[in-house]
Design a protein that fits this description.
Blueprint: E1 16-19, H1 23-32, E2 37-42, E3 45-49, E4 54-58, E5 82-85, H2 89-102, E6 110-112, E7 117-123, E8 129-135
Parallel strand pairs: 1-4, 5-8
Antiparallel strand pairs: 2-3, 3-4, 6-7, 7-8
Length: 137
């Protein structure tokens, strides 16, 4: 006898929102380095997209509760990292050159053969870990 799913059926991620310490700095990082475009600006927030991912960049929703000097820490409950795909290892190598030109620290390209991808890790201005992934050649 087949079991019937009792949960909801969901699709792709519709959008995500990052709480950042400086919206302008984050907007410049995601548009200038990762190819996002500004879709809308409303109040203190900015909405950006790369054509596949829609992402909000906003200050803390309750500034009175924001921790001064806070940075992202994947060891706290919540987000661990964001991963964006690129088409090839050559694009990962191009990303390293671009990150170096912009002074953005990064790791080395790592092959995750069990997953069939190569990964390059770096962080945004608020220390959020980002990855670029490409299919293994």
């Amino acid at each position: 006898m087949a079991t019937q799913a009792t949960g909801l059926t969901t699709g792709r991620v519709d959008h995500l929102k990052l709480t950042v310490t400086d919206v302008g700095r984050s907007r410049d990082f995601y548009t200038g380095l990762l190819g996002f475009d500004v879709v809308a600006e409303f109040g203190p927030s900015t909405l950006v997209s790369n054509g596949e991912v829609l992402m909000g960049l906003s200050p803390a929703p309750n500034p009175a509760r924001a921790t001064t000097g806070d940075q992202f820490d994947e060891n706290r409950v919540g987000l661990d990292h964001l991963s964006f795909s690129v088409t090839s290892r050559a694009e990962l190598e191009r990303a390293i050159r671009l990150l170096d030109e912009r002074g953005v620290p990064h790791g080395e390209i790592t092959d995750l053969t069990g997953f069939g991808i190569s990964v390059l890790m770096f962080r945004d201005p608020d220390n959020i870990q980002l990855e670029l992934t490409a299919p293994l050649a």
